[in-house]
Amino acid sequence: MSTSTPHIYLIRHARPLINKQGFFTKTQAQQYLQDYNEADVEEIIERSEHLPMDQIKRVFCSTLPRAKATALMLFGPDVELIEDATFKEFENRMWGLPMGKFPLKWWQVTSRVLWLLGLNQKDIESFKQAKARAAQAADHLVREAEANGLAVLVAHGFLNEFIKRSLRKQGWKVVLDGGRGYVGVTQLEKS
Prior knowledge:
Pfam families: His_Phos_1 (PF00300). By secondary structure, this protein is of the alpha/beta class. It has helices spanning 26-38, 65-75, 104-116, 127-148, 157-169, and strands at residues 7-12, 23-24, 58-61, 80-83, 102-103, 150-155, 172-176, 185-190.
């Protein structure tokens, strides 16, 4: 990595240790969502070779336990870990009639699509607000990268995707796209 070119690393948390098999009522799906936000994560066996471990002194992360646990597993207790609610995942709430049992994916996808359309945002952050927060998070990471040569974030799939979009609009180039896989690393550099 060139020290003159600022880099930003977006990392998704490790896989949460929670069962999502079977069929769920709406109440069970809502409980799953709550449990997911508090779940421990799988142990990380292998670190990405794309992370410049010797240069990382400070890591930003979401306030949700799965992001913090992932950051500590990846970078150890000696790194300065900065937890910030700006980096929390986009909120979600289960939508649907309280009858019937469906696979968890049905509850999640239906609820998320309706949220994206603005039809499922009662008592939670709207999609518009979430995108604005992602842009704010991107600006925060840009300031860090420009001041220190790099910025590292351990957060969530949806949020990281919208941070990446915001950074690309600002002229950052994706040099490695880890996608939304668990512990996926996306690396961007200033073009």
